Amino acid sequence: MPNLIKIKISIISVFSFLVAILTPAHAEAPIKQKEETQILDKTDFKLYAAQKMDSYNWDKEELICLKRLWGKESAWNHLADNPNSTAYGIAQMLNETSNDPLVQISNGLRYIEHRYDKPCNAWNHWQRLNWY
């Protein structure tokens, strides 16, 4: 079953890439976000994040921290919107403009690495201050 989810994520990633490079810049982008979101669910988002974390060389403990952090921030909802700020999406990034959960996860992981080095440091910060 996890392999099937990995295959779905890989197919979606390749499809998204192809659409991006084959769509003329002046043309209206095809509406694929809803379809991708329907294919993926919160379990798939977590698996995608785990796969992306491999490139950061973070261990399973870091994945646990990330799941807790984004569970508190957005409940892994790619449409989560903070009415008190511009925070949006799974990672609740300020000024996030993408509705694509895969982009949100990638952006969130880059932010965590840049600001906190790893997810457990971000989670510890969140536990102290209720934000990261």
Characteristics:
globular; 2 strands; mainly alpha; 3% strand; two-stranded antiparallel ribbon; 132 residues; 62% helix
Task: Report on the architecture of this protein.
It is a single chain. By secondary structure, this protein is mainly α. It contains six helices and two strands. The chain has helices at 2-22, 33-39, 42-53, 60-74, 101-116, 119-129, and strands at residues 87-88, 93-94. Strands 1-2 form a two-stranded antiparallel ribbon. Strand 1 (87-88) and strand 2 form a beta hairpin. Helix 3 (42-53) crosses helix 5 (101-116), helix 4 (60-74) packs parallel to helix 6 and helix 5 (101-116) packs across helix 6 (119-129). The longest helix has 21 residues, at 2-22. It is globular, with a radius of gyration of 15 Å. The termini are far apart.
List the helices and strands and how they pair.
Elements: H1 2-22, H2 33-39, H3 42-53, H4 60-74, E1 87-88, E2 93-94, H5 101-116, H6 119-129
Antiparallel strand pairs: 1-2
Helix pairs in contact: 3-5, 4-6, 5-6
Major sheet description: 2 strands, antiparallel
> How many extended strands?
2
Mean pLDDT: 81
Q: What is the N-to-C succession of helices and strands?
A: HHHHEEHH
Indicate the percent of residues in helices: 55-70%
Tally of separate domains: 1
Question: What form results from the Cα inertia axes?
Answer: globular
State the end-to-end CA separation.
Answer: 33 Å
Task: Quickly give the structural class.
Answer: mainly alpha
Biggest sheet: strand arrangement: 1-2
State the helix count: 6
Radius of gyration: 15 Å
Strand residues, percent? under 5%
Uncertain regions spanning at least 5 consecutive residues: 17-38
